[in-house]
Amino acid sequence: MAAFRRVVRSVSPLVSSHRPVLSQLLRTMSLDVQPEPWPPVPAWGRKRWLRAWVSKERHLNRGKVPIEVPRSQKPNWDYDAELLAFTSRLGEKDARQLLRLAFSKQSYSGNEGGGEQCLEGTQLLEEGKRLAVAFLNRVIVEWMPALPDSALEALTEALLGDEALAKVACDLGMAELIVDAEFPFSKSTLRSTVFSVLGAIARSGGSDRAELFVRDFVLPPLSWMDLFEVWSVEDPMAVLVQEMAKCGDAPPETRLTRHTGIHTLLPIYFVGIYR
Amino acid sequence: MSMNVQDSPQVWMDPSSCERTITGGEGGTDLAGPISGSDISCISFHPRGMTGRATASRFLQSVLHNGLGRYVCQLSRISLVFSKGSQTSRGVRDYVENHVVDFAKKHQGTVVYICPRRCHVPKVTAEYLNGGTKVVALNSKSAEEIAQVITLMANQSGLDVIRIRKPFHTKHPSIQGLWQPFVNKRSEIGPRIAEWKGAQSIEDQ
């Protein structure tokens, strides 16, 4: 590189007119003294190719999304230690073997021809699902006894939906432990994993432990959830009449309590509903 | 390095012990502790301006509804990368020999990876449950200082440590709802309110 630079300088002295006078003088006298390069070259060399390379890489990679790699393919990953840490995180150290089963998905164990494993995994999933739905229904009815059935169903569905449970799975570190052919995992996979884990906990530690899990990790969003965001009421009056009939009350009476701006584009009517 | 490290099941020792790399997949990625560039959430701290908008900021939030449900330590794993012989790693070696097992016993939900390999700057890499990663250089730190750093990591949530816009946050900023002409007006037909004696006097004010 240095030789190349020397050649270039000797060929075209006019290119770098800012060079110190002494070295120019030495070169014109063709003495055997190497002039100091100007500006000085750092010890690691002047990487003139770097800027061009970076810009070319940027140009080639524009619009590309970086490939996601599962955590297990990155360095420092020991599945047994991670699984043990997961069980101690939840306080379920006895459930290790069952959890290993719960994390290996059907598509993976199917390749190995583990038919029994598949069956048992499915059983865990079903068990966990049944347990979660039953517990949520019981607790919500206990807290809000006057809630109509459709609202209860909507709340349970929202709490056990793909979005909510996928978040739980990611926040507890379940997503890293899943052994599956597909990656990145879909939300439904994460959801079913939560159910399988729940089933495993129920089978090893009893349904009480599993219910504690649901109470601590699945139920909290209920505290800020807006009922009418998850429950779309088609005909509110009909629901009200139905619920009052259940209690043995007469149908409600409606009265127009206030109105304003009737002749404008934005009229307002307030209707009071009385028992 | 020392046998007592391997007693605790969460502490995982690099079997090849020196200069070897730990690889999960095929092809040897030469990485024991540091994480590839795509993992580290980059927050730019360039002094682009003097206003609050120029720096990264976020709202106050918690992870995993911690506080409503049960507490879960968010630190999922730490990797200690240090050299067996270098002077800068002296404190880390002390920490690994005397303190790391206690840490692993206390924080059982955290996996500790010990990676001795030739390096000038020993590092600890913390990975959190929410995917966040934090790397701290430990060169020339004593074992106590390293213990402080690692305890701090264990107590953090893994969310970005950046400016928090307000010390409070709510998902429902307004309970009252949109304004309409009858906001804060007295109800006139309601049977209960008509009987209420104080209503008239309040309206007079």
From TrEMBL, chain A:
Q: Does the keyword Transmembrane apply?
A: no
What is an example of a GO molecular function annotated in this UniProt entry? ribonuclease III activity
What UniProt keywords apply to this chain's record, in alphabetical order? Mitochondrion, Ribonucleoprotein, Ribosomal protein, Transit peptide
The answer to whether keyword Ribosomal protein applies is: yes
Q: What is the annotated localization of this protein?
A: Mitochondrion
Annotated InterPro entries: Ribosomal_mL44_DSRM_metazoa, RM44_endonuclase, RNase_III_sf
Coiled coil (residue ranges): none
**What residue range is the signal peptide?**
none
* Listed name of the protein: Large ribosomal subunit protein mL44
Source organism of the structure: Eptatretus burgeri
From TrEMBL, chain B:
Q: Does the keyword Ribosomal protein apply?
A: yes
Which Pfam families does this one have? L51_S25_CI-B8
Write the record's keywords in alphabetical order, separated by commas.
Mitochondrion, Ribonucleoprotein, Ribosomal protein
Question: Where is the protein localized?
Answer: Mitochondrion
One biological process term in Gene Ontology: mitochondrial translation
Gene3D superfamilies referenced in this protein's UniProt entry, alphabetically: Glutaredoxin
Q: Does the keyword Metal-binding apply?
A: no
> Which chain regions cross the lipid bilayer?
none
Q: Which residues form the Ribosomal protein/NADH dehydrogenase domain?
A: 84-157
Q: Which InterPro entries match?
A: Ribosomal_mL43, Ribosomal_mL43/mS25/NADH_DH, Thioredoxin-like_sf
What does UniProt give as GO cellular component? mitochondrial large ribosomal subunit
User: What GO MF annotations does this protein's record show?
Assistant: structural constituent of ribosome
Q: Report the sequence similarity comment from the record.
A: Belongs to the mitochondrion-specific ribosomal protein mL43 family.
This one is known as: Large ribosomal subunit protein mL43
